[in-house]
UniProtKB/TrEMBL annotation:
Record keyword Transferase present: yes
Upper classification of the organism: Bacteria, Bacillati, Actinomycetota, Actinomycetes, Streptosporangiales
Name this polypeptide is given: Methyltransferase domain-containing protein
Protein keywords: Methyltransferase, S-adenosyl-L-methionine, Transferase
Protein's organism: Microbispora siamensis
PANTHER family for this protein: METHYLTRANSFERASE (PTHR43464), UBIQUINONE BIOSYNTHESIS O-METHYLTRANSFERASE, MITOCHONDRIAL (PTHR43464:SF19)
Length: 209
């Protein structure tokens, strides 16, 4: 059923090794330690209505060294966070411990959530540049894993690079792709990022209660 061919396996391995190299080399370029304002606005509210999202259960995909998982825990969320690279998860554990934040950090693959202890349901999924780097043959499994774990009306806040932005054949994500792949979800917002190349913040809502 879930049997990748050799090329697909090679592609997954190449991605994993490249990510591991970044973490072994020191601080990866994306590891800013800053929670993006788009997540802050969702969690704490913005504008006159200060429409903060009530805390619930959150699952972060590709959490890196845990900056945003810790942020969510500090704002009352029950957080599970997953990353493919063990070194990233080790650093995230250190960060959470130093912050006194209760975050459940899991080393594993966001496209194989059934192999992890993360049954959900979750009210919020957060993905900051993880999905857009996942090889295409694993993306349906990613969407299915989130769909199975989504509480009614759950949100997915995702940041992704546009296609052709990174130096490989497959990285990138578009609104059309998410609409097609996340059946049963509604793409409720697409906001361009502020980078000098195409990036997007996507908000999706899982089927209503
Ligand atoms: C560009 S980094 C961003 C990390 C973190 N979200 C941040 O902003 O600091 C992408 C992260 O996703 C992780 N990742 C990539 N593919 C993954 C997968 N299939 N499952 C879990 N994590 C993955 C990488 O190891 C990396 O930590």
């Amino acid at each position: 059923m879930d049997k990748p061919n050799e090329t697909e396996r090679d592609q997954e391995e190449a991605v994993r090794r490249a990510l591991e190299r970044y973490y072994r080399a020191g601080k990866p370029p994306w590891d800013t330690g800053v929670t993006p304002p788009e997540l802050v606005a969702l969690i704490e509210g913005h504008g006159e209505r200060r429409d903060a999202l009530p805390p619930g259960r959150a699952l972060e995909l590709g959490c890196g060294t845990g900056t945003n998982a810790v942020y969510l825990a500090r704002h009352g969320w029950e957080v599970v966070a997953v990353d493919l690279v063990d070194r990233a998860i080790e650093q995230a554990r250190e960060k959470a411990a130093a912050a006194g934040a209760a975050v459940r950090l899991l080393h594993g693959d966001a496209t194989r959530l059934d192999e992890l202890d993360a049954p959900g349901p979750y009210d919020l999924f957060f993905d900051l540049s993880c999905y857009c780097g996942i090889p295409p043959h694993r993306r349906d499994a990613y969407a299915a894993g989130l769909t199975r774990r989504a509480a009614p009306g759950a949100r997915l806040l995702m940041f992704g690079y546009g296609p052709g932005t990174l130096d490989d054949k497959f990285s990138g994500v578009t609104a059309d792709e998410l609409r097609a792949r996340f059946a049963g979800w509604e793409l409720v917002d697409v906001t361009p990022g502020t980078n000098p190349f195409p990036t997007f913040w996507f908000t999706l809502r899982a089927g209503a209660a």
